Amino acid sequence: MDETELYNNSRIELTAWVSKNSSLLKRLDINASLAVSPEILNITAPDFRIESTLNESTVYQNFGSAVIIELPKDAQSESIRAEGTDWRWAAFGSVRP
Length: 97
Hints:
With 97 residues, the chain is α+β, with helices and mostly antiparallel strands. The protein has a domain at 1-61. It has helices at residues 3-8, 38-41, 87-91; strands spanning 10-18, 25-36, 50-59. A three-stranded antiparallel sheet has the order 1-2-3. A hairpin with a 6-residue loop joins β1 and β2. The mean pLDDT is 81.
């Protein structure tokens, strides 16, 4: 794969708004696009092309506010973890239900 050409055919624009009073992040916009051609992948497929776009906007607010996280009642008795299993093995996918 021609990574240089892949980078040349991609675009990422990141815009962040920061509060001048608190210096906290208020909003983050990400706009990205990518076009992959047969030449970039070093293949011969004249009708092949991948185009991808991403537009994301996140608003941040209520920093320092209390957050209540509650597990739904029907999920409280279910667990995909094996009791007594070391968390490191679970994190690496070695534990299977």
